[in-house]
Structures are given as C-alpha cells and as structure tokens.
Design goal:
The chain is α+β, with helices and mostly antiparallel strands. It has one domain (about 10-185). It is about 25% helix and about 35% strand. It contains 4 helices and 10 strands; from the N terminus they run αβββββββββαβαα. It has helices at about 10-30, 135-140, 160-180, 180-185, and strands at about 35, 50-55, 65-70, 75-80, 80-90, 90-100, 100-110, 115-120, 130-135, 145-150. The longest helix is centred in the N-terminal third of the chain and has 21 residues, at about 10-30. The protein is globular.
C-alpha cells in the first residue's frame, strides 16, 4: 500500500484535533479549571471594560498547567496551544502567571481596548513561563491552531497566595524602575480598539 502525504489543510486539522484531544485528556486528570469550547468568540471589548486575551502558542511542556491571575485572582489556565479571554476594569492591574516560576506584568487597561499577552514556555530544569506582548496580526495566525476555553466559575481554581503575589509584583516594580525601556512593552502597552 502506498501512503500519500497529508495535504496542508488535513495536517492542520489533525494538529488542531490532536491539541483538543490532548487538552481534554489532560484536563480530565485534574488541575484544569477550564471548559473547552467548540466555537471561538468574536473579540470585542465593551466601552467600560478592556478585554484581555492570554494565548499559549507553544507545544513545549504541553501538559503543564499554568495559572493566570489578575491582581491575585485566578482568571484562567493554559496548556498546550490554548487561549482564553477575560474582561478587565480600566486602570492599572497586574497580570501574573504561575508555573514553576512567577511572572508579573503591569498594564494600564483602557475601556474599549483589546490586549494580547503571549504566554511562552521555556526549557530548563523547571517549567518557566514568561509573558510577552503579542500583535494582533500574530494573534490572528496563532489562534488558528489554538483551542478556546473559558474559566469554569462553577469549579474555580485557587487564587494566588498573598506572599507569592506580593513577591511577583514587587519584582516587576523593582525591575521596571531599574530598566524602564525594557518593561515599556507592558507599561506602555495600549492594546487595540478592534480585532479586525
């Protein structure tokens, strides 16, 4: 029997399906407080709220669940290639991820705007997560192979430990004062008015 290589479209469908199956299997084994959805929502922000989008684009450390927090309150988790949305009141807020490390950023959110944070996973002895700002164009490419989930408010995860939250945000404040240009990607981030 002669095997034919998969077309690009078939290959893409299979990788998205594999991601969804992997996410479903892993989430059944505990640790996830997310519900996978078949339909991806439109990206729109209300006038009196900002919309925060956190997307994990890598398959590295695929099964490792990373918690994401807004001002210490859990807003969602990522693993494999996945993303979720959360509404944010306007003003300065800390977004913190917790893997084997803690990574905090501070953003001045404005109502009616959409903010994209990419959650990277990096090799090493531990599962290390870092945020970076993502452009709208890059999001449109990456979202094609990502699974959309919503935070399960009926079975919520734990909020951050107060000391861990303080340590993470203190680190961001200290480093952003020592090297403002390096952290301007977050402190000066204004997001997008529309996802068109």
């Amino acid at each position: 029997m002669i095997s034919r290589p998969l077309s690009r479209r078939s290959g893409k469908r299979m990788s998205v399906l594999a991601a969804a199956v992997l996410l479903a299997l892993i989430s059944c084994h505990g640790g996830m407080n997310m519900i996978m959805k078949d339909t991806k929502p439109p990206l729109t922000a209300k006038k009196d709220r900002a919309l925060l989008v956190i997307i994990r684009t890598t398959s590295f450390q695929a099964g490792y669940v990373v918690g994401n927090y807004l001002d210490g309150k859990m807003i969602g988790q990522t693993q494999f290639k996945s993303y979720f949305l959360t509404e944010v009141r306007p003003g300065k807020h800390y977004v913190v991820s917790q893997a084997d490390n803690k990574d905090a950023v501070r953003i001045n959110f404005e109502g009616g705007r959409i903010y994209f944070l990419q959650q990277g996973m990096y090799p090493g002895w531990n599962a290390t997560s870092r945020y970076s700002v993502m452009t709208l164009d890059d999001f449109k490419i990456q979202v094609q192979e990502s699974t959309y989930s919503v935070y399960d408010t009926q079975h919520p995860g734990k909020d951050m430990d107060a000391k861990d939250y303080k340590d993470a945000t203190d680190d961001f404040d200290k480093l952003s004062k020592e090297d403002p240009p390096r952290y301007k990607e977050f402190t000066g981030y204004r997001g997008y008015t529309a996802a068109k």
